[in-house]
Structure formats: structure tokens, C-alpha cells
């Protein structure tokens, strides 16, 4: 399995298991199936409301010696309701309590958007101040690295010019319909690892998995479209976190296609600037303005 090195020096397995919309009752089994299939990187978040069940599963996997804590890379995310600097450590503690873990390998600011505690009402807390509070978490030992999610270039530029820790990771929507080449170039230049979320086009939107270019390339390599999409992400130098609760798909998403230059060129041509995750539709906030060309 490909492993990337973060700007902290820590190693992160390129492919992790996504857990958004992995329902309670399913998510524990999914995490178990993933670890048994060889995953050593799990992507979670407070907002996914399934951390308790993941924690129970991890605890069993640790006690049965299926996996050691130190062999697992676990990511979680600070939810928007904890952005006030005085609430940041509380947000982390809730996640650690839910998971039953002493530390996270990576803690991301989920969105550059703050909510009034307990609501989804947008409030004016500057994400730079939230980041400064996250920087302090590193000294507690409860997070090994910190990063961001859903940040575009102007957001990152502000952090780089006014704070002291460079984010280890920026996790964003990334797939052949939204390849974000300028953000990828920017993050590579600044030694920030980009992680691709919704790499298969997310749930309920099968258009990417059934795209004729993707399915033809899959056929050529005797792989399925998921294996082409995950392989494409890894070959671009991004971490990637496909979600599945199906043991067969969890396993197959690790067995990625190795693409040649012709495949990569063909995939470049399928770009439609199609976004599957758009908070504007649920919060009325357009945090993606700065993505410019990529949103057209
Ligand atoms: P994905 O692009 O990973 O797609 C998941 C969907 O594809 C599910 O319906 C899954 O169904 C299905 N699927 C999985 N594998 C295959 C396969 N090989 N062939 C066909 N279908 C397949 O969507 P997500 O939006 O969930 O993104 C992945 C992860 O990224 C999330 O789970 C989360 O961890 C993270 N994320 C982060 C966000 C952020 O704001 N930081 C936002 C969105 C996602 P099934 O389970 O039945 O296999």
C-alpha cells in the first residue's frame, strides 16, 4: 500500500476508509471489515454521529490484538459548532471520549465556517482564530497533527501568512469531475497533503462510477470503476478515502488499478466541474467561491 509522509514526518496510508453516512449498526462492521482487509487509515468526524460505534469496534480490535493503536492512522474533524477558540479543546475531547482513544493522528477543521453552538446558524468566528486554538492542541499530545478541510487557496494563504503551523492536510472534494488542479499544485508547493473526499462521486450519484471513460478504462485493466477512481487519486499523489459499508467493496477499493499515461489523459478529458457536496444547498453559505475555475 502506498504511504505518504506528512509535513510532520508522520506516515499516512494513501487509502483510508470513509465513514460519512455509514449508519450506526453498519459502521462498526465496516471498520472491522476494513481493518481485516488491510486498511490502516480511517476517516471519521464528530458530525457523522457514529464515532461511539467506531470506538467500540476499535476497542475490540485492540483487545483481540488484531491491530495495535500505533499501527492505525485515525482522522477526525472539529465540527463547526466548536469554532469559538474556547470550545475547540472541548470539541476534541468529545470526539476522543466517543472513540475511546487517547489521541488522534490527524484532527481537521471540518469547514472554514462557524455555527452557533448546538445549531446550524452561521456565526462570525474567524477560522484563523479557530486554527490558532487548534495549534495549541498539538502541545497536549491529544493530536499528532492538525489540518483543514474544504479550504480553498485564499483560505490557505490566510493561514500560511498569519499562523505558525502549516496544515498537514487539506481534505477536499476531489475526483475526475472536480480535479482541482490549481489547488493540488498549491498544496504540493507548500507541502500540504491533499486528501480526496467523495472520490467515487459520493452516495446517490452514480454518474461518475458509470461514466463511459471510467468504465472503459476499468475494462481495459480488468478492474471495476471504483478501483480506477481510487487508483487515479493515489497516482496524483493525494490520499483518498472511499466510503463503503459493503465488505466486498471495502476490500476491492484497496486493490487499485495502475493507470498509464493514456488513461490519465483520457480521465483529464472527462472533467465536468461537477460538485457532489455543496454546503450552499444545506447552509446557504458558498464556501467554495475561491475555487474559481473549478466550480464553473
Ligand atoms: P464516496 O465517493 O466514497 O462514495 C460512497 C458511495 O459509493 C457509497 O454509496 C458506497 O456504497 C458506494 N461505493 C463504495 N465503493 C464502491 C465501489 N467500489 N463501487 C460502487 N459503489 C461503491 O463518497 P463520500 O461522500 O462518502 O466520500 C468518502 C468519504 O470522504 C466520506 O465517507 C467521509 O469520510 C469523507 N468526506 C469528507 C467530507 C468533508 O467535508 N471533509 C465531505 C464528504 C465526505 P456502499 O457503502 O453501499 O458500498
TrEMBL record:
Domain of life of the organism encoding this protein: Eukaryota
Family the UniProt entry places it in: Belongs to the aldo/keto reductase family.
GO MF annotations, alphabetized: oxidoreductase activity
Catalytic site positions: 48
Name of the protein this chain belongs to: NADP-dependent oxidoreductase domain-containing protein
Keyword check for Iron-sulfur: no
Binding site for substrate: 110
UniProt entry keywords in alphabetical sequence: Oxidoreductase
Gene3D superfamilies per record: NADP-dependent oxidoreductase domain
Species for this entry: Spizellomyces punctatus (strain DAOM BR117)
